[in-house]
Amino acid sequence: MKRPLVLHHTRQLFVLLAGLLVAPALASAAPIPSRGATWAQACAACHGPDGQSQGAIPALDSLSPEDFRAAMQAFRTEERQGTVMNYIAKGLSETDVEAVVAYFARVQAR
Ligand code: HEC
Predict the structure, then answer these.
(1) Which of 35, 38, 47, 60 to mutate to test the pocket of ligand 1 (most atoms within 8 A of CB)?
(2) How buried is residue 8: exposed, middle or buried, by Cβ count under 10 Å (0-12/13-18/19+)?
(3) Which residue has its alpha carbon closest to ligand 1 atom 43?
(4) Run means of pLDDT, 10 residues per run, the chain, 110 residues
(5) Per-residue confidence (pLDDT) for residue 21, from 0 to 100
(6) Residue 81 burial by Cβ neighbours in a 10 Å radius (0-12, 13-18, 19+)
């Protein structure tokens, strides 16, 4: 028996459209963990996926939440002088820092 091709594609289109409608609603109600995951992706460009750096840039997956938070704070206040982290840390709000610290704490717990 031949598959009803048109009907099949219509269903795929419907699923796609439903997804497009739901996605923005989810994004605007983004809870803190997903905000942390979003930031972690930006950090991954230099610190490696989930902060598991393989190169010269320090790894983030071995920092305790306390040290992580303290480092971000020190970069923000310029108490600690880095190359790029002073700029980056200033771009994150307190809420962003807490979200990213919580994200990496969960990565370590895995
Ligand atoms: C452009 C590359 C780059 C990006 C992007 C980046 N970092 Fe960094 N990070 C560095 C470098 C380089 C250092 C070493 C300090 C310095 O030179 O600024 C560092 C150091 C750190 C440290 C201190 C680590 C330690 O062991 O003391 C923390 C914490 C940190 N980064 C967090 C983050 C977070 C969180 C993000 C994402 C929001 C991020 N970084 C994004 C390059 C980057």
Answers:
(1) 47
(2) exposed
(3) 46
(4) 60 59 56 79 93 92 94 97 97 95 87
(5) 58
(6) exposed
Q: Are 103 and 110 in contact (CB under 8 A)?
A: no
Atom of ligand 1 nearest to the CA of 42: 37
Ligand 1: nearest atom to the Cα of 63: 26
Per-residue pLDDT at 32: 54
One-letter identity of residue 17: L
* Full-model pTM: 0.77
- What domains can be seen in the chain, in order of their start residue? 31-109 (1.10.760.10)
